[in-house]
Amino acid sequence: MKTYIVGDIHGRCAQLLNLLDMLPRDPETDTLVFLGDLIDRGADAPGCVSHILKLSHENPERVICLRGNHEQMLMDFLEGRSNLWLTPVVGGERTFQQYTGQSVRVESETELEEMRRTFEQSFPVEHLAFMQDLPFYHEDEFAIYVHAGLDEGKHPRESTPMSLLWMRDMDFYKNYRGKPCVFGHTPTPLLPLRGRLGRHGIYISHSAIGLDTGYNHQSPLSCISLPDFNLYQTYADGREETYQITSFIPETLREMQRKAGLG
Question: Is residue 87 part of a domain?
Answer without folding.
Answer: no
